[in-house]
Design goal:
The complex is a heterodimer of chains A (136) and B (151). Chain A is an alpha+beta fold. Chain A has three helices and five strands. With 151 residues, chain B is of the alpha+beta class. The chains are: A alpha+beta (136), B alpha+beta (151).
């Protein structure tokens, strides 16, 4: 990936994610998050009034960051990254992560990206932004 | 508009938790990389932590008996507010250096703002925390801003 070959509007590769009970268990164990909405269906529905087990917001944030890390690989560094969980996502949903280039500074080799996670209804659940420095 | 956030709550702005120290192990990175379905070898082999790995590192670990009915530890740095349901909000990171096995990281978490907003389904309170992460030698690793939404 050469910065000379990049252009504003260029799309990053998209990837789909489908969380399962097992993947959510592993994720919440790995980050030590014992919140019951992520593994206790009865509790999630009856007490916190969710329609299903909740997919962690930060897990979607991670998937969004992978849109960037998988694209730059070892040819650059992530400088800044942000996201916002605007809409909850639930077990059983397939989510799609992607993004595009919004600006390129050819003097500093800094590229800005707009990122999204969408659900099957094409609603953006988690928008994000990133700034990367491409290795010269 | 501060109908729900009273004066006492606002005095919490600027308060910090005691710093926490975390030693990063390769196995912790590998577990995180597997759970998040990372694709790059440097992450799945644990040579380097994925950028978001650090976000999970500062979570408090306390005895099971001390966890609440919701499974969570008692919230720290949260004033008494009339809205109780907590949702993850936005997060922003500024990265200074990658995290590797053997790093000893010091996290400091400060309540940096409390703002009331009106959402589509009713009132919301946004609480912002600033989390700084440095190595034990004082080298900056990352700065994080995290918003929790109460509804």
């Amino acid at each position: 990936m050469e910065i000379a070959n990049l252009s504003v509007g260029q799309q990053l590769p998209t990837r789909s994610f489908r969380a399962t009970n097992v993947s959510l268990f592993c994720y919440n164990a790995a980050i030590w998050n014992p919140h019951r909405i992520h593994y206790d269906e009865k509790y999630a529905k009856e007490v916190e009034h969710h329609p299903e087990i909740v997919i962690d917001g930060p897990l979607q944030g991670d998937w969004l960051s992978q849109t960037v890390t998988n694209w730059i690989k070892d040819r650059g560094n992530l400088l800044e990254f942000s996201y916002s969980n605007r809409r909850a996502s639930y077990l059983g949903e397939t989510l799609y992560a992607g993004g595009k280039i919004t600006s390129i500074d050819r003097d500093t080799n800094v590229v800005e990206l707009e990122l999204y996670i969408k659900n099957e209804k094409d609603e953006v659940t988690t928008p994000g932004n990133a700034k990367v420095k491409i290795s010269s | 508009m501060n109908d729900l956030v009273h004066e006492e709550a606002l005095t919490w702005i600027g308060k910090s938790d005691p710093p926490t120290e975390v030693e990063v192990t390769r196995r912790d990175i590998v577990k995180y990389a597997a759970a998040t379905e990372q694709e790059l070898d440097k992450f799945t082999k644990g040579d380097e932590a994925p950028p978001m790995f650090v976000a999970g590192l500062s979570r408090e670990i306390i005895p099971i008996d001390d966890l609440g009915d919701d499974g969570l530890p008692p919230a720290s740095l949260i004033p008494e507010l009339p809205l109780k349901r907590v949702m993850a909000g936005g997060v922003s990171f500024r990265f200074h250096r990658s995290v590797k096995p053997g790093d000893i990281l010091i996290f400091t978490r400060t309540l940096s703002n409390i703002v009331e907003k009106r959402g589509k389904t009713g009132p919301l309170i946004f609480i912002t925390y600033s989390i700084t992460c440095k190595t034990k030698n004082g080298e900056p690793v990352l700065d994080q801003e995290q918003t929790r939404i109460l509804r």
